[in-house]
Amino acid sequence: MSDFQELIKSFPKTREYVRDFFVYGFKTRQEFTEKSPRTYDNERRRLESWLAPYVQKDYVPNGANISLAIDSSLLDTNPLFRVWKTKSFTDNDITLHFLILDLLQDGQARTAEEITDSLLSEYEALFDIQTVRRKCNAYGKEGLLTKKKAGKAVVFSLDSRLALWLRSTEQAMDALCFYQMAESFGIIGNEILEQLGGSNQTFRVKHSFFVHTLEDEILLPLLSAMNQKQNVALAIKSSKRGMKNTAYCTPLQIFASSRSGRRFLCGYLEKSRRFTCFRLDTIKNVTLMEPSTEYDILQEKLEKNRSRLWGVSFQGPERHHSDTLTLTLHVQEPEEAYIVSRLKREGRGGTVTRIAKNTYQYQRESFDCNEMMPWVRTFIGRILSLECTSKLTEQRFYQDLQTMYRMYLDEG
Amino acid sequence: MELFSEIYSCYYQVLRHLLCSQNALTMEEIHSQVCGEGFGESLLSIIPKLESGAWDLFEKNGELYVSKIRPNFLMPLSSLEKSYLKALLSDARIGLFLNEGQLGALGQMLDSVTPLWTPGQFYYYDQFSDGDPYQDSRYRKIFRTLLDAQKNSQYVDIDYNSPAGNRVHHYYIPARLEYSVKNDKFRLLALKRTKDSFRLETLNVARIQSTALTEQALDTQVDLNALIKHSYYKEPLTLRIANRRNALERAMLHFANYEKNTRKLDNDTYECLIYYNQAMETELLIEVLSFGSMLSVIGNEKFLQSLKSRLRKQIRMVPIE
Lengths: 412, 321
Fold this sequence. Notes:
Radius of gyration of chain A: 27 Å
Structural class of chain A: alpha+beta
Strand content of chain A: 15-25%
Oligomer: heterodimer
Largest sheet of chain B: 5 strands, antiparallel
CATH architecture of the largest domain in chain B: Roll
Shape of chain A: elongated
Helix content of chain B: 25-40%
Helix content of chain A: 25-40%
Order of helices and strands of chain B: HHHEEHHEHEEEEEHEHEEHEH
Distance between the termini of chain B: 60 Å
CATH topology of the largest domain in chain A: SH3 type barrels
Order of helices and strands of chain A: HHEEHEHHEEHHHEHEEEEEHEHEEHEH
Low-confidence stretches of chain B: none
Number of helices of chain A: 13
Largest sheet of chain A: 5 strands, antiparallel
């Protein structure tokens, strides 16, 4: 493994590996069938190098399992942010980065020629002008430098005011500590914080699902398309069977689950004239296409439909337009009033009615009542009845309940 | 705007710290810093580049490495970073941190920047509807007092309404402010001094009636994580997962925020151990119930009995067929 490199050129392949280790966390060399054993060894070595403090090794009969032992309630940052800091670069890249930015710290605007001369006179570093100009242009594009025309010349300058303000405003640094843990694109907050010499020792996030940071590279072009009201082509790889296909849609909103951290793109498929959701971790690539001519109308339609959405499914198993689920619960009054609060707080707009002493009814219309089942099951122990206009959903609930009885209460 | 870019690389970060050092560095000091801040094998890549001068950023003075750049070097923010900050300005919680003047100043500096996202572009479909009142001035005042106390390890006199309806009044050291995405609420992880040690308590920030900062600060180091881990039951929850209907992936993602350990038992069956404490018990039970028959609880006995008790109640309402 003499060609082993700790840093990498592109993110997508690594994203898959990290996700597999994180989510499954117990695959041995033999179980990684998609790539060669050599690739597995290299990826594993990189992962161990990047995330060393969190890697756990367990020896099993057919090899060593490596997994990531990450308990979000014990951490002040997301360890998977480290994966974003692994981009490879050339010797010129890193040298020019520090020298150009150091030279321009004084705020004075300079041409590429002047910068090249100063690199030699002030830092004894010899670069050709083309290389310096290319780096300055790239940094202009990244927003690190301001590129302007001064007469016929193009000049580059650096503005540190924002960074200085953030660094000297304690409350802004506190906000970054919080948002890097709790909000989308936490990796960006984390990078700003590091650049300014801060670190979080104040905030924790209870329901934090670290693995989803890996999807941010997909989220970025999707938001860009949404901001510009453009259609997109999505390269999809299904998580169940690994099938690949391309979907064309108008991206409208990002749906996110606070319970699993999963995020979805909700888009409109012109071909089948319906809304659908794509899990971000199944999207491998996003290509921006033509502008959507009816973007605002589609957003309005989605807004109208939302009251009948439970999660991310726009169609139930029986392909009805929508179904209604009625759940009747035993709630001992007054001591179990918290159950009624739960129905209101968690019921996503469903109606809650007291129909008799100690008996409450919850009702909601949904495109796919099957999606409601995990939530309904959290009331096990007090469900008097469940009725649903989707008979398949109703049957599934009772069958599952009977199975649980057999699993846990069958003493014989 | 690139998210995966070398300008955010760990190596750049390590180098920046080395270069901004006030003093000339020995190779041992460089080694030690690279080991502390870099990845596991970064030493093997970084040191040869510095020694050979391929990264021409130090002047060699005998055995010492002298930085070529200024110690007050500050990297400007990229467009992506500015765009991220602009998006945060529209978040309801930003007012917990920045006052009107600061919001105005930041807004002005980001005037020409397009936000990376707007709140309406995200929809948390399963977030509880009774989130904390972030706009409420009393809530903000309490939040800021707790934040200050946490950073300075100061005792705070807290008057609290417990969920059970009891009024509690105690001195606490705020250990962490914990945010729950699901509940859209802040909780305070607070240390309460006992006779010879500390006890960790969790208080809902929205239930705190008043706070008063004291002059007294914590005079000893408390290992918060050790306290949390110490609170875990000795015997973890043991789940058996048969990998059908994508149950394995769903369970692994769902329980990803717990400390857990998973192993494969045979071709189709996995065992997952989840570590938890009493405060997490009801929530974990509800989460396990939500999976129905897709998961089976093997132990611990206490958890299993709680699950069976719920099912016994249930069977009285919907009998077995």
